[in-house]
Design brief:
By secondary structure, the protein is α/β, with parallel strands linked by helices. It has two domains: 13-42 and 295-392, Aspartate Aminotransferase, domain 1 (Alpha-Beta Complex), CATH 3.90.1150; 49-290, Aspartate Aminotransferase, domain 2 (3-Layer(aba) Sandwich), CATH 3.40.640. The chain is 39% helix and 15% strand. It has helices at 14-29, 49-62, 79-91, 107-113, 132-140, 184-197, 237-240, 263-274, 280-289, 292-318, 342-353, 379-393; strands at residues 36-37, 101-104, 123-128, 144-149, 168-172, 200-204, 230-235, 248-251, 257-258, 261-262, 323-325, 331-335, 355-356, 358-359, 370-374. A hairpin with a 5-residue loop joins strand 11 (323-325) and strand 12 (331-335). Helix 3 (79-91) packs parallel to helix 9 and helix 10 packs parallel to helix 12. The longest helix has 27 residues, at 292-318. The N and C termini lie far apart (60 Å). 45% of the residues are buried. The mean pLDDT is 96. The structure holds pyridoxal-5'-phosphate. The site of pyridoxal-5'-phosphate (PLP) has 14 residues, from helix 4.
Length: 394
């Protein structure tokens, strides 16, 4: 028996382990220090009342013989939820049929599992810095990776190099970690490039609900031609506080075919074999997010985080620090002041301001010299953290 040798090629994920160690060491030396954590990507506000009510109702159904549900007849989601998600797309002008919506237990699983459908010989194009799942899942299955430089010069929004040919392209907008958001013209360039190369565009829209400016796209399917080349991954984690609930969705249009084979049909086959669906209670909870009450409640929660992002952006402007994100995104990606390296700035911020963020270097080589802050924290603590940073850099 041989193990999958590709696992030996994975980079160890030192980032969050190193952060945790540094924080623990700091707390040991400074017991009772009032730390403010702005590094985590998890949400902090609870689920909305409409979601909780739907879960209570669904739990009661599960307790009665007449309404009890066992295995879902379709691992891709109950019709009520697929329809609700398709309706959500329609609400911002995007065509999606419920049969093109595949419900899963979160964008991480779907983004990771989609590579099952693709040949090992395909070349993969991945932006740097990046959400590490795209890299690791392809390394595990032994694919060749090409990196696409996201830098300050291109606003951390790289466009394709016509001289480079790739088969699988990952894009994330609004971006984790940089908070940068592609506009329609830029995404059109990507769609045209993918179609010209016969490539598939894997579009991670996990943060679409943070887009507030009407001119910016929330879905790749707002772009003409995308139905022929793209798959979109989305999540209720950040939209509706579902990080602990686990529910997301992937949209694969009927038009997406390679060699006459439907990608949606392959995904259906894969999921039917390896996945038994999201729990009924969770799917009812997710359905509630898309009701008028649910959407109104979620909007309130999002505006809480958006206000944090605004406060942070204002503070960075006041300090004269270059950054991306902060609008249309819960992430702010700042240049480390004084030409400090990512970890040097991390240490200073922890030691002098008791604020914890994420060193950009952990997301790829182009992240060196940058730092990620998140807007998912408590409002008062976020304000306090920015005041502390101002005092530290005075
Ligand atoms: N995609 C991106 C870009 C993310 O940042 C995250 C979570 O942090 C995910 C996907 C995973 O989301 P989920 O909780 O739905 O698995």
């Amino acid at each position: 028996m041989k193990l999958n040798a590709n696992f030996q090629n994975l980079q160890q994920s030192y980032l969050f382990v190193t952060i945790a160690k540094k924080v623990a060491a700091y707390l040991e030396a400074n017991p009772g220090a009032d730390l403010i954590k702005m590094g985590i990507g998890d949400v902090t506000l609870p689920l909305s009342p409409a979601v909780i009510e739907a879960m209570h109702k669904a739990s009661d159904e599960m307790g009665k013989k007449e309404t009890f549900r066992g295995y879902s007849p379709d691992s891709n989601g109950y019709p009520f939820l697929r329809k609700a998600i398709a309706g959500y797309y329609h609400s911002f002008g995007v065509k999606a049929d419920p049969s093109e919506v595949f419900v899963g237990d979160g964008a991480k699983s779907d983004v990771g599992n989609i590579v099952d459908l693709f040949d090992r010989e395909n070349t993969v194009l991945i932006p740097d810095p990046v959400y590490p799942v795209y890299v690791d899942t392809n390394v595990m299955s032994g694919r060749k990776l090409l990196y696409l430089d996201a830098k300050e010069e291109n606003g951390f929004l790289p466009l394709p190099d016509p001289g480079v040919s790739a088969d699988i392209i990952y894009l994330c907008s609004p971006n984790n970690p940089t908070g940068a958001v592609y506009n329609r013209e830029q995404l059109k360039v990507w769609v045209d490039y993918a179609r010209k190369n016969g490539a598939v565009l894997l579009f991670d829209a996990a943060y679409e609900s943070f887009v507030t400016e009407k001119e910016l796209p929330r879905s790749i399917f707002e772009i003409e031609g995308a139905r022929e080349c793209a798959i979109e991954f989305c999540s209720l984690s950040k939209t509706a506080g579902f990080t602990g609930m686990r529910c997301g969705y992937t949209v694969i249009p009927k038009e997406l075919q390679f060699g006459g084979v439907s990608v949606a049909a392959l995904w259906e086959r894969r999921q039917g074999c390896k996945f038994n669906g999201v729990s009924y209670i969770t799917q009812r909870a997710a359905e509630a997010v898309f009701t008028p009450e649910g959407l109104a409640e979620v909007k309130k929660t999002l505006s809480y985080y958006q206000e944090n992002a605004r406060v942070m952006a204002e503070a960075l402007k006041e300090m004269g620090i270059w950054f991306t994100g902060g609008v249309n995104s819960p992430y702010l990606w700042m240049r480390c002041p004084g030409h400090l390296g990512s970890w040097e700035f991390f240490d200073r911020l922890l030691g002098e301001a008791q604020v914890v963020g994420t060193p950009g270097e952990g997301f790829g080589k182009n992240g060196e010299g940058y730092f990620r802050l998140t807007a998912f924290g408590d409002q008062e603590k976020t304000k306090e953290a920015m005041e502390r940073m101002k005092r530290m850099l005075k």
